[in-house]
Amino acid sequence: MSVSDDIGRRGAPTTQRRGRRAAPLPPSDDVEDAAAASGGDLDLSGLTDVVGYALRRAQLAVFEDFIARFAALDLKPAQYSVLLVIGRNPGRKQSEIAAALGIQRPNFVAMLDELERRGLAERVRSTTDRRSHAIVLTDDGRALLDRALEVQREQEAIIADRLGPGGRDALVALLHRLTDTPLAERD
Questions:
Q1: Quick one: 124 exposed, middle or buried, by C-beta within 10 A (0-12, 13-18, 19+)?
Q2: Do 24 and 62 fall within a single domain?
Q3: Per DSSP, what are the bridge partners of residue 21?
Q4: Measuring CA to CA, which residue among 153, 33, 144 is closest to residue 83?
Q5: Domain that holds residue 90
Q6: CA dist 176 to 127, 154, 166, 169, Å?
Q7: Which of 43, 72, 132, 185 has the most CB atoms within 10 Å of its CB?
Q8: Residue-wise pLDDT tens digits, 44-75
Q9: Domain total for the chain?
Q10: In terms of domains, do 99 and 22 share one?
């Protein structure tokens, strides 16, 4: 809903979020005057030093670059991760791969269906558990993964260059420290 739509229905503009009504905004002339008077960039000082905000912004920058680089391969980040894990762990159960990557089962099944449709991966009957399927890459899947790994190496080199000597490795180590143990257990 836009502010102008809201004005037409209620007479005073409001902002809305998830069905809750926020406090009314000042009349639009006052808002525009305040914005014009402030000029320049928005003040984000309350966010820029927050770890979660900085992580999210960095993730968005890396993913936007990833998506652009991998567009020619028609691979999304999650698909690349799945192909890589299958390629490094051929014959594992789909439930193991989904759990390791933190992908919910229904989402993983749909993704695997798409990879199979494209001829990149296939489910084969497990030799150890006839109720489950093992997943392997096809020849086309291995060839695509090889090309994707080269694109990934290029992106990693650019990131390493941007972060300076040792910066990439230090960043990865610090991120692993954040994910190794839930934050609540660190007190």
A1: exposed
A2: no
A3: 16
A4: 144
A5: 51-186
A6: 35, 22, 16, 11
A7: 132
A8: 888 888 999 999 999 999 999 999 999 999 99
A9: 2
A10: no
